[in-house]
């Protein structure tokens, strides 16, 4: 089924629209917004059309879905994932992708934030008529994020949260026998990540940071980002005009400081040159990195660079929890070990020292994931 923007002029009973106010795409309706991506003045209907069609094109060009595939939408109740759930349902019906969509949420255990946002996801479930599965940090790790912050301090909260949430989404998908998780990561997130990895000189992560599909070898779960080229401002506009029900409060624990700084930098650059978000992604996609052999100059002859840190490669399993890990012990188990040590210290000394967490962070920096 194809869809074209409606061409009937609206407002035809009211006073004539000046040419300069007409939509630059359909030339018949009044332009009501300046498109953040390219500053085109367009009408609401054309905005819906171009926004949805660009996402459809990203999906088709990258061959994201197979007919009959079961797909989990990582749903947090925030604007990105709410728009993603809405758009995926709409495009699946409009273009007959033939996929089976489920909402998958992670409850990190952040009182006053995640409990409220999960209430939004539950409403979305009813609004879109999609099944919903919720997995929680408490049930998987016996820790809530509130307990983690109380034990390890707020400084590294996003590191803990990111590692546990990534694994939780995988575990939730596996529980549902779903092998594809899609997330609402948008162009701004991706450009920020590219920038952060350049600024940190993190070549290993830079290489993967613009991939639309990611999957560890041996892992049954792949991830993809249909919003890879969608601007955050356009996602917000779409949610606003479509009156989608989403949760907009920020997390109680601020995003990690370095990402916050990269975000500010991106926003300043975008204000001067809106295309810089896409330009940074394209730069990341086209960077030609040195061959791995050259980057691991100190390897012994014949030694596999992937085994240099641990003797393990992607597809191996964590010795403790059995989860896929490129190291002997997975990142989540490393963090849990630090937390348990800290909890024990706190119980013994009634002291809120964060030394244990800092030690784990230092250890993690020397591991490859
Ligand atoms: S801001 Fe940090 S702690 Fe809060 S939900 Fe995001 S990653 Fe988790
Ligand atoms: Zn128009
Ligand atoms: Zn583990």
Structure description:
- Strand 4 (100-107), helix 3 and strand 5 (132-136) form a beta-alpha-beta unit.
- The protein has helices at residues 44-61, 79-94, 114-128, 137-141, 145-152, 157-175, 187-200, 203-208, 232-241, 257-272, 276-286, 292-295, 331-349, 355-365; strands spanning 33-34, 41-42, 70-74, 100-107, 132-136, 180-182, 213-214, 222-224.
- The protein is α/β, with parallel strands linked by helices and 369 residues long.
- The chain contains 14 helices and eight strands.
- The strands form two sheets. The protein has a six-stranded mixed beta sheet.
- The chain has a domain at 63-288: HUPs (Rossmann fold).
- The protein is globular, with a radius of gyration of 23 Å.
Short descriptors:
single chain; 369 residues; alpha/beta; Rossmann fold; six-stranded mixed β-sheet; two-stranded antiparallel ribbon; binds zinc ion
How much of the polypeptide forms β-strand, as a percent range?
Answer: 5-15%
Helical stretch count? 14
Average pLDDT level: 85
Low-confidence stretches: 8-12, 295-300, 302-312, 349-359, 365-369
Q: Decide which structural class fits the backbone.
A: alpha/beta
Regarding CATH, which class of the domain at 63-288? Alpha Beta
- Catalogue the ligands: iron/sulfur cluster, zinc ion
Strand order of the largest sheet: 5-4-3-6-8-7
Q: Tell me how many strands there are.
A: 8
What is the CATH architecture annotation of the domain at 63-288? 3-Layer(aba) Sandwich
Q: N-to-C SSE series?
A: EEHEHEHEHHHEHHEEHHHHHH
Largest sheet: 6 strands, mixed
| Shape by Cα distribution | globular
- Could you please say which CATH topology of the domain at 63-288 applies here? Rossmann fold
* C-alpha Rg (nearest Å): 23 Å
* CATH-level-4 superfamily name of the domain at 63-288: HUPs
For the terminal residues, how far apart are their CA atoms? 43 Å
Helical residues, percent: 40-55%
